[in-house]
Protein: Carboxymuconolactone decarboxylase family protein
Amino acid sequence: MTARTTRTTRLDDGVRSALGALSAAAKRGLGDPALAELVQIRASQLNHCAFCLDMHLGIARKEGVGERQLDLLAAWEEAEGVFDARERAALALTEAVTVLTEGFVPDEVYEEAARHFDADRLAHLLALITAINSWNRLMVGRRIPPGSTQW
Structure:
């Protein structure tokens, strides 16, 4: 077994504050705290960020997201009747922005999201997806464990 490289837990206070402010503003502007948590959890699942999953699952429960939705979030596309059309559009956009499989967000995914969110809320949803992806990369890149207070 090879030894694991020690990674930094350091994060510049200015970076933390700026990214935290972006996350908070995006969540506030989206205007749906439960949906915001579903989006952040789904991105964190895709990015394998245990720290963010741990944090956002706890927040989601406090925001009233049901266990059934949390249990089936990884398979939301197949979980008919569990997520409404608006949630499904937000989750599809989350996956498209997070993974960028085709190198861009497909028009049909964006257009479906635009049918469920006005321009301001859609802008905040995109900002929230961008913010959580940044947080995921900061935490995964440094291997910050779930529940850590040193990050």
